[in-house]
Amino acid sequence: MGVATASCSSSDEPSESSQSVDAGADATAVTDGSKPDVATERDAGLVDAAALPVVCESTPCVTALVTTLGANIDDRSEGFCALLSDGTVACWGANGAGQLGRGDDAPTVDSANAARVTGLTDVVSLDHTCAVDKNGAVWCWGTGPFLQPDAGAPLAARSPVKLDIPPATKIGTSYATACAAVSDGLLCWGSNANGQLQPLTDTPGPTGQPKSIALPPGGKIEAISVGLATFVLRDDGSLTTWGANPPIGRLSPIFPDPYPQKVPIEGIKATDLVYDNACATAGGRGYCWGARVQQKQWGGSGLDRAVPEPVIAPEPITDIATTHTYLIDSEVHPYRWCAVGISGKAYCWGANDSGQAGDGTQDHAYDATKVVGLPGPVARIKTTPNTTCALLTSGKVYCWGSNYNGQLGNGENRGRNFVPAEVKLP
């Protein structure tokens, strides 16, 4: 398909961007073309910009795409999982915590070859390494809070573990906290370090027992995201958040804020929460907020990004993704963001030292830069600090950037791709 693969640099070590750019709110757009030419700012307009649907052209066909989690927040290994149209799940990339789900007897080695998670069938919903099947059963593998008696010690499982909770429709999980949408509301369990379960005075430590969360009135739960805060997106376009501040996305006089309240954005279509950073789309516009940016670099207070700020884009946005902000050498380094336009084109900005912006270069993408080499329109996009993967409307997945953990899924060990290449699905 004319997709080029760049040769390796002299080092395959995971890169640490030396530049710190808060492009989540201040990036400018680029024109349609193979080179990242800067265009004038464009008002994306308030439109009903939902993600393009996936229409399977052949098998295997992917219907949903997620990132995996490492052993803990300091584990920077990267990987992805895909929900296939036959109800199975395939994963590739890092496997130090068993996040590929290859089975109890399989080694915990990284893999550039996508393979099905053992024992999973009839899956209808997926988040990181937890899945919901058609009967409402929740299965998790890799790292996470698995309703064990010692809730403070997350279990690493090489095979899916069935959780003892009522039938669920959606699941959201992070390293130590998880939530599930059930018939009578929302259940959460695990760490309460940032008030993700309820006020710290009521539950000062982690719990292995699910807690019912009282949500404000609203529609049906469409998606759950868990990081330093918890996000619940409903079918009425409202986003309810609680936990650490940021990234709850609203002003609050308390930290953490354990009381679920709505973010002041209407008509939200999609969200992405990665530990301390968050983004959302509404009315064709992208918004990002989260981790503090150092005052000496950016001016203003430490709450400059506590509330959603618009993303400048060349066209209305249907999907958006962000990454965790790391502290490197006593400086905050916001990594990168990617988005999908209403046309199906993909754009990335931020760190690009592994080619993860997808423009064929290693130049830091200060502006929203068009991804080159994709053979068709994009439905969804997912990012890690060093890699990007896009789910096309055809059901194919293309990835670019670092391959240090085999996260490109191309069957090759290490190396980098500066432009997209297709994942070899089972």
TrEMBL record:
Pfam families: RCC1_2. The keyword Repeat applies. InterPro entries: RCC1/BLIP-II, Reg_chr_condens, Ub_ligase/GEF_domain. The keyword Transmembrane does not apply. Coiled coil: none annotated. Keywords: Repeat. It comes from the Bacteria. Residues 7-33 have a biased composition (Low complexity). SUPFAM superfamilies: RCC1/BLIP-II (SSF50985). Residues 1-37 are annotated as: Disordered. This is BNR repeat domain protein.
